[in-house]
From TrEMBL:
Organism listed in the record: Sporomusa ovata
Uroporphyrinogen decarboxylase (URO-D) domain location: 2-336
GO molecular function: methyltransferase activity; uroporphyrinogen decarboxylase activity
InterPro entries assigned: Methanogen_methyltrans, UROD/MetE-like_sf, Uroporphyrinogen_deCOase
Keyword Transferase set for record: yes
A biological process from GO: porphyrin-containing compound biosynthetic process
Pfam families: URO-D
UniProt protein name: Methylcobalamin:coenzyme M methyltransferase, methanol-specific
Length: 358
């Protein structure tokens, strides 16, 4: 089955060959395609072609235009470091003082920074993928982008010292997010939202509900008004805000490896599709193929019967140098398990894999 056929069959309750699986290869696709990551900053065709190369090599179930966390802040004035062959990083935020917040302007996705490159990459990817595989456009949420506009530590302090200033940052940040989401929707790609700074590992649930959730809801509602239903990913521990995120009415929730798939299934699995959560660093990057197999099997056993569906994924984007054999093992394991999932057989596979690791 193609990924599109598999997704349609799952939605209709028809027979499928396996669970959907997305290793979330991220900029590691450059290694598959054979280009340097720096090409992604100016070559939209390379971004799209690298995504397709990863799909053809591994057979994953979705593709996404998303190179790093910073194109939106960059388009609003932040300075970004561009290594020759690694992922871009924040060098300097857009502003340095609270007084400068009022000077910030929403970015124009067709003109500012690398946003036009990303939009062109979406057009290429849509053309390459045709109707075979679902493609999405990644975007950071307004709260996370606000940190990159002003400075992470300063913004954390500002939450307590000057909350109104944080709301101003989030508001102008949101306008950029909405403009970019609309541009992606016009091309025909569904936005997905990453909100790493909303993690309970970074801020309290109270702070999340006051400073992130209102803008996340507005962005989700904006996207849904155009007929799309985004997936939301929040890094780190998120168990205390799962219900808040689910109440947004989104299409799926992606959880990190430090969160529990089983707990997530029990808490919100009857309300939303769950995605996750093999450790991207400790297992996918640093582990052996057999360790990848074990953790993939354990995740399947924990969540295969989640009422609204389950997608096998890494807990977050994979490090660039993640071994190909580990990515292949995740995909092969899901194929071997097949569908419908037989839990007794999965348990037997887990036991056999553990014996092999002893």
């Amino acid at each position: 089955m193609t990924p599109a056929q598999r997704a349609a069959a799952i939605a209709n309750g028809s027979a499928v060959d396996r669970l959907p699986c997305n290793p979330n290869i991220a900029n590691g696709v450059a290694r598959v395609y054979g280009c340097k990551i720096s090409e992604f900053n100016h070559n939209p065709k390379a971004i799209a072609a690298a995504q397709m190369a990863a799909y053809h090599k591994f057979g994953c179930d979705s593709l996404r235009i998303f190179t790093d966390l910073f194109p939106w802040a960059e388009a609003m004035g932040a300075t970004i470091a561009f290594p020759e062959d690694d992922t871009a990083d924040l060098l300097k935020p857009a502003i340095s003082s609270v007084e400068d917040i009022d000077k910030l302007q929403p970015a124009n996705p067709y003109k500012d920074g690398r946003l036009p490159v990303q939009l062109e990459a979406m057009k290429y990817l849509k053309d390459f993928a045709k109707d075979e595989i679902k493609c999405s456009a990644g975007i950071v949420g307004a709260f996370t982008n606000a940190f990159f506009l002003f400075n992470t530590n300063k913004t954390l302090k500002l939450i307590h010292k000057n909350p109104e200033a944080v709301h101003k940052l989030c508001r102008v940040s949101l306008e950029t997010c909405k403009a970019y989401a609309k541009a992606a929707l016009d091309i025909g790609l569904n936005p997905t939202i990453s909100e790493p700074m909303s993690s309970c590992t970074v801020v309290s649930p109270t702070v999340f509900r006051k400073f992130s959730l209102p803008y996340l809801k507005e962005l989700v509602d904006f996207i849904k008004n155009y007929g799309s239903n985004p997936v939301v990913h929040i890094c780190g521990q998120t168990n205390k805000i799962w219900q808040d995120v689910v109440d947004l009415g989104i299409g799926g929730i992606s959880i990190d490896n430090v969160a529990s798939l089983k707990e997530c299934k029990l808490a919100v699995g009857s309300q939303i599709k769950i995605m996750g959560n093999v450790d991207p660093g400790g297992i996918m990057y640093s582990g052996t193929p057999q360790e990848v197999r074990l953790k993939t099997l354990e995740g399947i056993l924990d969540a295969y019967d989640s009422p609204k569906g389950y997608v096998v994924m890494s807990g977050c984007s994979l490090p660039v140098e993640t071994p190909f054999e580990n990515i292949q093992m995740m995909m092969d394991t899901v194929r071997e398990v097949g569908y419908p999932v037989c839990p007794e057989r999965v348990i037997e596979m887990i036991v056999q894999t553990k014996k092999g690791l002893e």
